[in-house]
Amino acid sequence: MEWISVEEQMPQYGQPVFVFCKKASYKHDGLKITVAAYLTAKEIYETSDYFDDESEAKDGWIAEVSLFDSDYGGRWMNEEVTHWMPLPEPPKN
């Protein structure tokens, strides 16, 4: 599998994928890879408490699992996602 630029193609809405973020300010090397899904503005508004009004929401990335702290699921990402990659198939056993 290879990384896919978000400028070339986006994953299907709601599909969990690996994402690569450039210039994550809190990382010592500035890079971040995590699992996230790209959601519609409506889905983000309905499942988060980040926005007071639906018109404020826009399509964006929601981290499925944070690999860097103890936060799990539903974490809105404000980092710039530059690339994504499908997740591998889970183990058979």
What features would you describe in this structure?
This protein has 93 residues and is mainly β. It has one domain. It is 8% helix and 38% strand. It contains one helix and six strands; from the N terminus they run βββαβββ. A six-stranded antiparallel sheet has the order 1-6-2-3-4-5.
Essential attributes:
about 90 residues; 6-stranded antiparallel beta sheet; mainly beta
Count of separate structural domains: 1
**How many DSSP E strands?**
6
Proportion of residues in β-strands: 35-45%
Distance between the termini: 22 Å
Q: Report the C-alpha radius of gyration, rounded.
A: 14 Å
Structural class: mainly beta
Describe the sheet with the most strands: 6 strands, antiparallel
Low-confidence runs: none
Helix content: under 10%
What is the molecular shape?
A: globular
N to C succession of SSEs:
EEEHEEE
Biggest sheet, spatial arrangement of strands? 1-6-2-3-4-5
The number of helical segments is 1
Mean pLDDT, all residues:
80
What is the gist of this entry?
With 93 residues, the chain is mainly β.
Lay out the secondary structure.
Elements: E1 4-5, E2 17-22, E3 31-39, H1 41-47, E4 60-65, E5 72-76, E6 80-86
Antiparallel strand pairs: 1-6, 2-3, 2-6, 3-4, 4-5
